[in-house]
Amino acid sequence: MEALLKDSHTILQSSPLRSRTNEPRGASPPLDSYLQNVTSVLSACKRSEISPEDLETVFEALASVLKADVPSDRRGGGGSNGLCSSAIIEACRCSRSLPDDRLRQLRGCSLGLLGSITASPKCANVVSKKELLKLVLQQLLVRGAQPNEEDVRTLVRVAPVLLRGSSEGGGCAPAAEAGASATRYVPPHRRGSDSDFSDSEHDGSRSRSLPYLCLQCLECIDSKLLQPYFIQVFEALTEVLGEDSRSRNLRVIAAKVASKMLEGPSQRSYLAMAELPQSTKGLHRGFTTLSVQLGRLLTGLHATFRAAIQRENDAVLLGAVLRALGILSGVSPYARLEPGLAESTFGALYRKFERLMDRSLEHSGKEMSSEDFSVLQNVTNCLSLLISKGEVAAKGSPDSLKKCVSVMASITCSGFYPPGVRLDASIGLHRFAKALPVLAAPYAGLLQSAITGFLREDQEAVQDAGKPSFGEKICQQEIRALAEVLHVPASEAGPMVGFCEEVMAEGIDSGLPLVRSAVLQSMTHLKSDLAREVDSNKLSFLVSKVCHFAGEISGSSIGTRSSACRALGALLSLEPVLSLFDSFEHGLVTLISLGSADSGTLQVSLAWSLANVCDVLREQTQSGKGLPAALAKCVAKHLPSISALTIRLAGCNDKIRCNAVRCIGYIFDLFSALGADMEEDFESKAVDCMLGSLWKGNTKVQWNCCYAAGSFFRLSGGTAEEGELRGKLLDAVTSLMRSSTNYKVLSHAITALRQLEWKAYLAGAKAQVCESLVHVLLLLDRQKAPQLKEEELKEIAVDFLVSCVEEGGADDPGVVAVLEGEIDWLCTISEKLSSCLRRLA
Fold first, then answer.
1. pLDDT tens digits for 530-578?
2. Is the dihedral of CA 790, 796, 798, 800 positive or negative?
3. Which of helix, strand or coil describes residue 467?
4. How far apart are CA 360 and CA 376, in angstroms?
């Protein structure tokens, strides 16, 4: 062993090319002796006597040998090929016997040797490549053995060559010489075939082909590490999936690798930049951006998967390709890709499996095989993922969409299908109901019957060791699907009162967490029209139950408490609940008590609920009827607590703040309508929150701040302190108008300024407003093809500018100075503004 290591170090320090070319052609070169020595020493040496460091040295020396350029007349089935292959095989087999913690050390050198073999395919036979790939696969499967960037780069570089198979692997040794040198006997079980395709791809074979082993290695690597090589890897996978000559097993694992590479939030974010512009204007010749490359990749994958589905009938292969296509549909930004891509994919799937769906409806799953169930499961999942994108829902064939919904509803509610198939169908039905609630509405009664039937079963008998059962998961999806149908008119969906009085009441009181969570989420879809038909006692029961699960005393998880908080906000916003004074006050007190929680998840739901409840109360005060006396008294009593809690929430992150600042505006309106006394420092604290949010908040926070500013401007207070606060807020709003380009922000800002009476404007404020309006009009005038919303914004800005000039602006030197410099182009915007400015001139 010492002599072998010494020779290995010598080879690493010398040039194999020079050693070979200096030897006479007829003599045996020193490297051939070294290769024979490697085989004999490693085969005779005990595994315990070989260290990973020794094997690493041998691997590096073998890689150095392969880098030598062998003369052409020595290539083929002769000596060096067989000797080198035997040495590699023996080194790999010695390495595979090492413990996992020591095997991990050899990954880099074994991948380096694999790269050398691929670069010199004539110097090693197929068996040696297989043994090396098996070693790499074993190293990748070691727990915690995450490959580094160099390892991934090497494997991706050799993958296209290995996936091409025998076309790149010519010159292999005969089978008799494939597994060993000519000096020793090779047992039959250790002999190999010299064909890349003759072994692994046939069912029941114990060995595996080079392409299959290569795909197994790729499947072991984290998809995030493969992101930089998406285009290269997917091109190779596309070739495998597109060739009918490849075996079923090879194409199945290729589809599985594609699924793994596409799945995950990181991949979704990465592929979101993909685009395929219809116009080539502005694209430079010879240069393609990454986004366009990804767009072409996604479009090509759609074509490959569609072709494979149309061509194949094997259930296993169809299932793998359909799953890959479903994941691809979920990550593809169809709005930025080729027009009609989603619709054509949906249509191809529907035409291929229309007979299978018809058979499913006809026999209700009674005469279908397990292969049919598997294919149907993958088809429904794929179709529902496509429908969730929106393009298919808007442009798809009504007949095909109706049949898809019918099939999914039938599978979901039928007990003749396997639970897994029913679960995927229920998930697909929810997606269809979300995209096309009118098509799902006719099946509301069927779903209600299935849900109530499940809830009234013995739940302890269906529990699976504390884990959610298939029945519970299916029931959850059925409730979610019905929740999407709640707003559909009763003439199309039928009476949904039963859902509220039976499903909600029984579901929230059940001991099934997933069902209870789905019921809580469904309450956010309730509308007042439907709630009026529900029994008042049932509504009170629902409010009390939701209050229980929202409170800390229930012992529920933060997720459940957050869902209950949002559900409570939705219930308290229903007009029938406003008349249930005791229940309303109970719910309002519960919401206020949640302000002590520090969970950000719960605070997001709390801010949303408070804003919605205050919004409904504001609308009621502004309606002709107004609030009932008892309700007005209740609101006035708790309004100071709500105000303090809202100010606290407005100091949190943007997700919480966007609803908190909206609630501040509603609170101003409520104080004004109810004539209640607000706390002394509430106005100053509220204005400080709005000022900070206008400068630092995101777009949604900014437009909600503008609404709150308009509510503050409507207050009739005339103290010096309030005037100072209005001045600060007006400065911030006009500054925002000069810096923002968002339509909703600008629209809300102008609307807010219009709430302030002209007599309340401080000196110089009108000129400041006019300057901001001119800036907005200049921004809109630069738009070459303005949209409808931009035309509406321009009309709002022009009306306000005209009003500003007519309401004393013509006598304000500051206003005149601002408009004189821009009067020429301002007159071209509209006739109304032109006539006003001519009078000013």
1. 888 889 999 999 999 999 999 877 778 899 999 999 999 999 999 999 9
2. negative
3. strand
4. 9
